[in-house]
Design brief:
The protein is α/β, with parallel strands linked by helices and 168 residues long. The chain has a single domain, classed as 2-Layer Sandwich (Nucleotidyltransferase, domain 5), CATH 3.30.420.10. Helix content is 52%, strand content 20%. Strands 3-2-1-4-5 form a five-stranded mixed sheet. The chain is globular, with a radius of gyration of 15 Å. The two termini are 26 Å apart.
Length: 168
């Protein structure tokens, strides 16, 4: 299975592509898409959309795992994250990918074993699980790789539940 994790954001949208293999998961691509806060919102959204579309066309993942906007103290941040998340999900579906969403706590729990883990702990576990020479930076990139790893951990259970639902 090949999963592209997306940590949605307007200024920094993290991505982490992880492929399963005989020796465990391995990173295919990890990074961030940046847009300039100096540009107007519509231009930034269009730029993010074009970059995500190109990334999906280049990588061709089976599944796109997107962080679910669960709670934000800052309404402005929540709005921009929601807009970026919507673009990511729409582009994934347009590219023929399945889409899964996970809350930050679900991701942290799957990757570190602690739903309250901090950014550094997530970066370190992503580094270990993917056998990377250094921890992915910035944190948005590590979070996106963690989303992909989370989906790989949850995929077998999701598949069994879907099969059970079809059998009914």
């Amino acid at each position: 299975m090949f999963v592209l994790g997306i940590d949605p954001g307007l200024s920094r949208c993290g991505y982490g592509a992880v492929r399963t293999g005989a020796s465990g998961p391995r990173a295919q691509a990890i990074g961030v898409i940046r847009t300039s806060p100096a540009d107007e919102l519509p231009r930034r959204l269009a730029e993010l959309q074009a970059e995500l579309r190109a990334l999906l066309a280049e990588l061709r993942p089976d599944v796109v795992a997107v962080e679910r906007v669960f709670f934000q103290n800052n309404v402005r941040t929540a709005m921009s994250v929601g807009q970026a998340s919507g673009i990511a999900m729409a582009e994934a579906v347009a590219a023929g990918c399945a889409v899964a969403q996970y809350t930050p706590n679900e991701v942290k729990l799957a990757v570190t074993g602690d739903g309250a883990a901090d950014k550094v702990q997530v970066q370190q576990m992503v580094q270990r699980l993917l056998r990377l020479p250094t921890a992915p930076k910035p944190a948005d990139a590590a979070d996106a790789a963690a989303l992909a790893l989370c989906h790989l951990a949850h995929a077998p259970v999701r598949a069994r539940l879907a099969a059970a639902g079809r059998a009914r």
